[in-house]
């Protein structure tokens, strides 16, 4: 096996797939999570003894330091789709990466990967995007050789986009569309994970930033229509903007706040910060290094989302549907 790599957020959507990819590449892996008792299934992603689970909280420097001890490499894949309780964007996307990178530098870790996001910008209207930009700067200050991955919308069986649209379609007769004309470039979570494993093993990737997007771009209205086609639930589309969208976002903010003391509540459908992100396109910039530079051919969206969205169909996986509009000839 290769050396030891610590993965912060290794039980999350992107982090768990990163653990799987690193295991296939032969690394020994230490999965650092806040609640170890919820992450023991991660051990099944590798050989016996290849993956260990440790407790670490990115708000607590001592636990971060302990989780990195003896590691040759670190991957920071902690994410937060919305703020709740003590898990603020500043903590998760800025202070956490800073603590981890500084600890990695002190302990002599040779490689560091920070999973950020397209749109990270200190001048962004989104608080999350500003925090990610601060995190990138802090990581590079501590470890100039660090690699930064900026995925666009990430999709996969546990995603927060297609699943959320499909869930909403079960509840409403008319489908609201937020940021209808905003362009996105969905990338498969497994491709993001492969990118993380690849840059750790590639000396030529040191100090570089990679923007990760799939092979096609779509508007949010396209995304909504494709989802409805896949689950076989036609709905009229109602683009929302201005006051109606802001009202929906404010309701989501209240629900996110309530999840701090009441974590059993469902996640918010949308928050005001997520609405802010939808005001700008989320696609790979012209000339940016990307998956192709890492030898990865990105997976297309259309063949994959039916493999997990079938559960929202009438009849589930046995439903007989016409192909999605995007696949019709």
Which secondary structure elements does this structure contain, and how are they paired or packed?
Layout: E1 4-8, H1 13-24, E2 28-33, E3 51-55, H2 61-68, E4 73-76, H3 89-106, E5 111-115, H4 127-142, E6 147-151, E7 154-155, H5 162-169, E8 175-178, E9 183-184, E10 187-188, H6 189-201, E11 209-212, E12 218-219, H7 220-231, E13 237-240, H8 242-258, H9 272-277, H10 306-309
Parallel strand pairs: 1-2, 1-4, 2-3, 4-5, 5-6, 6-11, 7-10, 8-13
Antiparallel strand pairs: 9-12
Characterization of the model:
The protein has ten helices and 13 strands. Helix 1 crosses helix 6, helix 3 packs parallel to helix 4 (127-142) and helix 5 crosses helix 7. The longest helix is centred in the N-terminal third of the chain and has 18 residues, at 89-106. It is an alpha/beta fold and 329 residues long. The mean pLDDT is 92. The chain has a seven-stranded parallel β-sheet, sandwiched between helices. A two-stranded parallel sheet has the order 7-10.
Question: What is the structure about, briefly put?
Answer:
The chain is of the alpha/beta class. Helices cover 35% and strands 15% of the residues.
